[in-house]
Amino acid sequence: MFTSKVLLSSILGFGVLVLAVGMVRGESSISSYIELRQSHAVMVETVKGLSNKNIKLINEISKIRKSPKYARKVLRDKYHITEEGERIVFFADM
Q1: What DSSP letter does each residue of 9-39 carry, written as one string?
Q2: What is the pLDDT of residues 3-52, one digit of tens each?
Q3: Are residues 64 and 70 in contact, defined by beta-carbon separation less than 8 angstroms?
Q4: 68-79 vs 30-66: helix axis angle to the nearest 10?
Q5: How far from 30 is each of 20, 23, 88, CA to CA, in Å?
Q6: pLDDT score, position 19
Q7: Eight-class DSSP state of 42
Q8: Confidence (pLDDT) at 8
Q9: How far apart are CA 19 and CA 13, in angstroms?
Q10: CB burial string 1-36: b at 16+ within 10 A, e below
Q11: What sign results for the dihedral spanned by CA atoms 7, 10, 13, 15?
Q12: Sequence-distant (≥ 6) Cβ neighbours of residue 30 within 8 angstroms
């Protein structure tokens, strides 16, 4: 008959085998974990970039609200809005 140590070792060995197979296959596999880590890293970088862009936009809005002169400059440069009576002249590239 089996002794308690042999039985315990067998159960423990079977448990380790099941865990090892689960690590290689299934929803909680190592490859799934690696893919999730990579996608997490991409998302963290995206969030950092968007946070920086958001800070720049907040600063830009603040400048526009504080300075009418800067607001006119932005309107002229970004949106090509002219003042009354102004004309835009385009030159052909050669």
Answers
A1: HHHHHHHHHHHHHHHHSSTT-HHHHHHHHHH
A2: 788 778 888 887 877 777 766 676 667 777 888 899 999 999 999 999 99
A3: yes
A4: 120
A5: 10, 6, 62
A6: 72
A7: H
A8: 80
A9: 10
A10: eeeeeeeeeeeeeeeeeeeeeeeeeeeeeeeeeeee
A11: negative
A12: 23, 24
Residue whose structure tokens are 């197979």: 21
Structure tokens at 57: 């936009």
Dihedral (CA of 19, 20, 21, 23) sign: positive
Model pLDDT for residues 80-93, shown as the tens digit of each residue: 888 888 887 888 88
- Residue keyed to tokens 């800067």: 70
Is the CA virtual torsion 58, 63, 68, 69 positive or negative?
Answer: negative
